[in-house]
Amino acid sequence: MASEAKDVGILAMDIYFPPSCVLQEELETHDGVSKGKYTIGLGQENMAFCTEVEDVISMSLTVVKSLLKNYNIDPKCIGRLEVGSETVIDKSKSIKTWLMQIFEESGNTDIEGVDSSNACYGGTAALFNCVNWVESNSWDGRYGLVVCTDSAVYAEGPARPTGGAAAIAMLIGPNAPISFESKYRGSHMAHVYDFYKPDLASEYPVVDGKLSQTCYLMALDSCYNVFCKKYEKHEGKQFSIFDADYVVFHSPYNKLVQKSFARLYYNDFLRNCSSTVDEESREKLAPYAGLSSEESYQSRDLEKASQQVAKNLYESKVQPTTLIPKQVGNMYTASLYAALASVIHNRHETLAGQRIVMFSYGSGLTSTMFSFKINEGHHPFSLLNIANIMDVSKKLKARHVVPPKKFIEVLKLMEHRYGAKDFVTSQDTSLLSVGTYYLTHVDSKYRRFYDVKGDGVTTTAMSNGH
Ligand code: ACO
């Protein structure tokens, strides 16, 4: 039996990304690649990274504490906490258990949920778990909380500029300003080796970059197809990208987002969607109508032609979603929701009544297309308040640009620290803002200890729960 909850979805959001970042333009020079390769070729501007005092646990502690404080949520009101992450710090102990410290303080240990992991998809799995719980008969009337937290780092080579780091927290409940249109979910799941992390001694993935791009586009086609069929069965009319006010993609790097939107446009062309594809564009795409799907993924001419005809719609439906992913980089599980945060930041005044289509992709592979219906919401869960609390512009501006040489030094240090025990960090919190959690040391039993940057007057100690 289902619960009585209506319009279940995201009530509130907060985002945290590390204050250290490297400019892609400077990285191009440092890496000795041709000018424009990372900035135009990949479409990225800036990349955030964790220094030795931050990790996925500290970022998630920071963002959860911040969300509860900023929206004035009593920790006792959380009944389910789900974490999505692909950054492995412990093969058994979930990140969720770390976050329980925040709730234990208030006496609330009655919180379901653990971590979900499959590459960049874990956050979506966590979100679905929370939404399904609120819509189910087991719901006890309290909020769900979803946390997506990842640090994306790559070995030296072409994938390195597609890193990033962030944590996002989303409060889940009924009567949400960002509510699920649950009937239209379309998924595509399959077994492939496009990006995976088989070496447990290393934080870096094994990645077949070209294959991962094709897998992403194939999954997109498949999800869109199922999504459209479900919509059409339910609504009795054709769905096209014209019915979406915004399309939000998992964003490993912006160029793939540009190609993905063009791919949806090409799908609409093949499906004869006259609302999307005008006569002139139809003529431009006509030479590619007979390609097999395999050929269509390899055709550079089709890629160029579809990007060109989709350009205007891209500007209105996708561009406003790209701010944080371009500035912070791939945040793995948090990437899709950082793109959602970007459109809320850019368009919160006009979003009410609109539809946002989301595409979640995790290598390996798992993928789903789903959609949100947006309304103004009521304070404190209004779009305006969400935008104000996330305060994206201020957080982006407050960052510190680090030279590539320093970034590489940090990565080298982290290679040694990954899986290590018995060390003390620099505890240098000079770049962190007040309220940010940081790693102080790891003891001889691999137990990790964190503290919170105080305002100079008081400091709250956080240990391993004792
Ligand atoms: N100016 C402008 N553009 C340039 C320049 C230049 N000087 N030099 C190269 N480019 C363009 C290329 O033409 C190419 O564009 P295109 O895709 O439109 O053809 C783009 O820059 C990338 O260059 P390539 O040489 O094709 O690719 P590269 O070997 O650098 O690798 C890749 C790029 C595959 C994305 C790599 O960074 C990678 O493996 N990243 C991780 C995998 C990934 O993110 N996959 C996505 C889905 S899975 C996930 O989310 C983790």
Automatic annotation (TrEMBL):
Record flagged with keyword tRNA-binding: no
Residue spans crossing the bilayer: none
Domain Hydroxymethylglutaryl-coenzyme A synthase N-terminal: 5-177
E.C. number(s) listed in UniProt: 2.3.3.10
The UniProt record lists the keyword Chaperone: no
Assigned keywords, A-Z: Lipid biosynthesis, Lipid metabolism, Steroid biosynthesis, Steroid metabolism, Sterol biosynthesis, Sterol metabolism, Transferase
Active site: 86 (proton donor/acceptor), 120 (acyl-thioester intermediate), 250 (proton donor/acceptor)
InterPro entries: HMG_CoA_synt_AS, HMG_CoA_synt_C_dom, HMG_CoA_synth_N, HMG_CoA_synthase_euk, Thiolase-like
Catalytic activity, as annotated: acetoacetyl-CoA + acetyl-CoA + H2O = (3S)-3-hydroxy-3-methylglutaryl-CoA + CoA + H(+)
Residues given in the record as CoA binding sites: 212, 255, 259
Pathway the protein contributes to: Metabolic intermediate biosynthesis; (R)-mevalonate biosynthesis; (R)-mevalonate from acetyl-CoA: step 2/3
Listed GO biological process terms: acetyl-CoA metabolic process; farnesyl diphosphate biosynthetic process, mevalonate pathway; sterol biosynthetic process
Enzyme class, spelled out: transferase
Ranges where the Hydroxymethylglutaryl-coenzyme A synthase C-terminal domain occurs: 178-453
GO molecular function per UniProt: hydroxymethylglutaryl-CoA synthase activity
NCBIfam families in the record: HMG-CoA-S_euk (TIGR01833)
Family (UniProt): Belongs to the thiolase-like superfamily. HMG-CoA synthase family.
Matches recorded under PANTHER family: 3-HYDROXY-3-METHYLGLUTARYL COENZYME A SYNTHASE (PTHR43323), HYDROXYMETHYLGLUTARYL-COA SYNTHASE (PTHR43323:SF6)
Function of the molecule: Catalyzes the condensation of acetyl-CoA with acetoacetyl-CoA to form HMG-CoA.
Protein name according to UniProt: Hydroxymethylglutaryl-CoA synthase
Gene responsible for this protein: LOC100384769
